[in-house]
């Protein structure tokens, strides 16, 4: 697979702009589009807009709303407007199912969501039973797309692990590699397991593999020391930026400065409050999106997003933006009508998703397999001089 080295995004800083009041009852109510005087396609959305993962859910909500606004202003989908209703799940599986049921009562015909993997898997079970089409922008766990009604825009956990190992090996970044991962988290373990498997095919050795759990993610001194003692020249960090910022700080305090390499969870590390950005210099990670690309479509997306929400879009916003356009393309390909039942729409879109190609902001010539997985190349991001920088 061909790699692109690119700039990543800072986290979206602003709350989203609600254009029209939501329908339904309970939960976070947000929708946009026109429902006056005609039929609409009703797209639901689920993700955290409160709680510790709210930054991800807000970005998805904003990116999706921006795409809906553009599509509606351009005439809709074959002349039919979109209504978008986004519900808060607080990154909780049970609350995500409750949000799904609220959207069903509202009349949801298809779902963009959910944002995080645990809730996505739970919602996937009920969506499959109802035969409702769902496209997750950012649910990376394998089981997020276990059924034929489910697709995703982002890369899966195993794909990130595999491609990380390939990149490290093919670019001769190190011969001795350590890994620190969260054994209590499906995202982290999924990436690490695939990384370790692919490492067997590469020209480096994993000399230390050290786990932590959600209950012990503030002190990484033991894991760092073991990596240092093993002579690791590169440390693989398949988890989120909040914990990664602690690892980098603690490693610096131990006079240990290997190459640090992460995955898409690193997006946003420079925005961690109180974090010394210089500690992240030379950090490398995979990401599906770069806001400073010279691509005209990306430049327009970034400009419009900043104008609407006051912050730079991150990969979650970009995935959601592409997700709405993918739904539009599939509906058009299927020649779908807004008065079709959710189940009939789902049957039509299962096939249509494998036949469409979109030029998105996360990839050009973006397509999907029947497995629900996207076909696109990851980008490689490197931080330099305290900022996300292009490396050619």
* CATH 4th-level superfamily of the largest domain: Response regulator
Radius of gyration (Å): 21 Å
Structural class: alpha/beta
CATH domain class of the largest domain = Alpha Beta
Q: In sequence order, what are the helices and strands, one letter per element?
A: EEEHEHEHEEHEHEHEHEEHHHEEEE
User: Which sheet architecture does the biggest sheet show?
Assistant: 8 strands, mixed
Could you report the average pLDDT, rounded to the nearest whole number?
Answer: 89
Number of helices: 10
Strand coverage percent? 15-25%
Coarse morphology: elongated
* First-last Cα distance: 17 Å
CATH architecture of the largest domain: 3-Layer(aba) Sandwich
What are the segments in which pLDDT stays under 50 over at least 5 consecutive residues?
Answer: 1-38
The CATH topology of the largest domain is given as Rossmann fold
User: In oligomeric terms, what are we looking at?
Assistant: single chain
Number of strands: 16
The percent of residues in helical segments reads: 25-40%
- Counting structural domains, the number is 2
């Amino acid at each position: 697979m061909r790699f692109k080295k690119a700039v990543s995004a800072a986290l979206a800083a602003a709350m989203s702009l609600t254009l029209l009041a939501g329908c339904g009852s309970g939960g976070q109510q947000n929708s946009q589009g026109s429902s006056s005087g005609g039929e609409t396609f009703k797209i639901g959305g689920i993700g955290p807009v409160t709680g510790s993962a709210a930054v991800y859910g807000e970005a998805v909500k904003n990116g999706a709303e921006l795409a809906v606004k553009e599509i509606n202003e351009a005439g809709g989908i074959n002349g039919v407007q979109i209504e978008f209703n986004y519900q808060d799940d607080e990154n909780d599986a049970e609350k995500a199912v409750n949000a799904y049921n609220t959207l069903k009562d509202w009349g949801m015909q298809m779902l963009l969501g959910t944002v995080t993997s645990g809730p996505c898997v739970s919602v996937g079970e009920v969506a499959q039973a109802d035969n409702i089409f769902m496209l997750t922008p950012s649910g990376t766990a394998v089981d997020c797309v276990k059924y034929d009604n489910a697709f995703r825009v982002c890369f899966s956990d195993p794909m990130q692990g595999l491609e990380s190992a390939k990149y490290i090996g093919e670019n001769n970044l190190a011969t001795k590699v350590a890994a620190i991962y969260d054994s209590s988290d499906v995202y982290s373990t999924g990436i690490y397991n695939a990384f370790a498997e692919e490492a067997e095919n590469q020209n480096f050795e994993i000399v230390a593999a050290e786990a932590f759990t959600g209950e012990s993610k503030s002190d990484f001194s033991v894991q760092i020391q073991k990596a240092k003692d093993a002579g690791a020249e590169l440390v693989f960090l398949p988890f989120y930026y909040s914990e990664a910022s602690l690892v980098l700080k603690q490693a610096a305090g131990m006079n240990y400065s290997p190459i640090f390499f992460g995955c898409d969870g690193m997006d946003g590390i420079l925005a961690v409050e109180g974090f010394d950005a210089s500690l992240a210099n030379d950090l490398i990670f995979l990401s599906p999106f770069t806001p400073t690309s010279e691509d005209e479509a990306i430049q327009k997306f970034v400009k419009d997003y900043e104008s609407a929400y006051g912050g730079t879009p991150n990969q979650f916003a970009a995935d959601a933006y592409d997700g709405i356009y993918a739904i539009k393309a599939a509906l058009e390909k299927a020649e779908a009508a807004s008065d079709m039942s959710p189940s009939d729409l789902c049957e039509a879109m299962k096939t249509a998703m494998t036949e469409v190609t979109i030029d998105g902001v996360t990839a050009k010539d973006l397509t999907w397999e029947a497995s629900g997985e996207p076909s696109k190349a990851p980008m490689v991001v490197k931080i330099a001089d305290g900022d996300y920088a292009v490396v050619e």
